[in-house]
Design brief:
Elements lengths: L1 H20 L1 E8 L8 E8 L2 E9 L4 E7 L4 E7 L2 E8 L2 E7 L4 E4 L2 H32 L4 H29 L5 H9 L3 H10 L2 H4 L2 H20 L1
Parallel strand pairs: 1-7
Antiparallel strand pairs: 1-4, 2-3, 2-5, 5-6, 7-8
Length: 229
């Protein structure tokens, strides 16, 4: 009888642990006072439509989502109807931070990977913005406009190449998870880059609905431009 009792408790414990492993908790904090009292939503793309996945209210700069999932989901955090940032809903404890200067999600493997990548993209974009200041300063210093333009254009090309390489490498190295389709659709910007990624992509990636729709629209647009020429 004692053995049966022990076995029952063991099964109950394992079942409980299994349920906990499928749960997610997303704790958010914000220093933006305007968010207080506002409704926050996690929205996911389902059948090509954005649908509410979870919701909560911001109270004193804090908000929290929690629940259970069968599989990892790519979501967007919304304040009312305004999209704020992407969030991977995956098992574990996830932290969201929002202020006027930065938005970040951390605490889980895919979110850490996504926002590490986004930090790299932001650094390159900041370098691109600094080139505007550099160009204006060169003109103020009396440098010929054409010379300034040539100098800055070379640096712009370098940064654009770095960003293309960063995006391509990130997508191809994440073919096995949902980050690859998300970043591909959001950030692949040139036809050669798109073709390079699709050429090397596995069938699962190519057949992803958002990837196939995006690639179809790019191909149709490219063919339309060729026909116009």
């Amino acid at each position: 009888m004692k053995n049966l009792t022990y076995l029952f408790l063991l099964v109950a414990c394992l079942t409980s642990c299994g349920e906990l492993s499928e749960s997610y908790v997303i704790k958010g904090s914000s220093s933006v006072s305007q968010l207080d009292g506002r409704k926050m939503y996690l929205k996911v793309l389902k059948d090509k439509e954005l649908t509410n996945f979870d919701s909560c209210e911001v109270v004193h700069g804090k908000f929290q989502f929690s629940g259970s999932i069968d599989s990892t989901v790519m979501a967007s955090l919304y304040m009312d109807d305004q999209s704020l940032m992407p969030v991977v809903v995956e098992k574990g404890d996830i932290s969201v931070f929002i202020d006027n200067g930065k938005q970040k999600v951390s605490g889980s493997p895919l979110n850490d990977k996504l926002y590490g990548f986004m930090d790299q993209v932001t650094r390159l974009q900041n370098q691109m913005q600094e080139l505007d200041h550099k160009y204006n300063q060169m003109l103020l210093d009396g440098i010929d406009e054409m010379e300034a333009d040539r100098t800055v254009s070379k640096e712009v090309a370098v940064i654009m190449h770095q960003e293309d390489s960063l995006v391509t490498t990130f997508v191809t190295s994440n073919f096995g998870n949902l980050l690859a389709p998300f970043v591909f659709v959001q950030m692949a910007s040139s036809i050669p880059q798109i073709e390079q990624i699709m050429t090397n992509a596995p069938d699962d990636f190519k057949n992803d609905p958002i990837v196939s729709d995006f690639y179809k629209s790019v191909t149709e647009s490219m063919n339309g431009n060729e026909n116009a020429d």
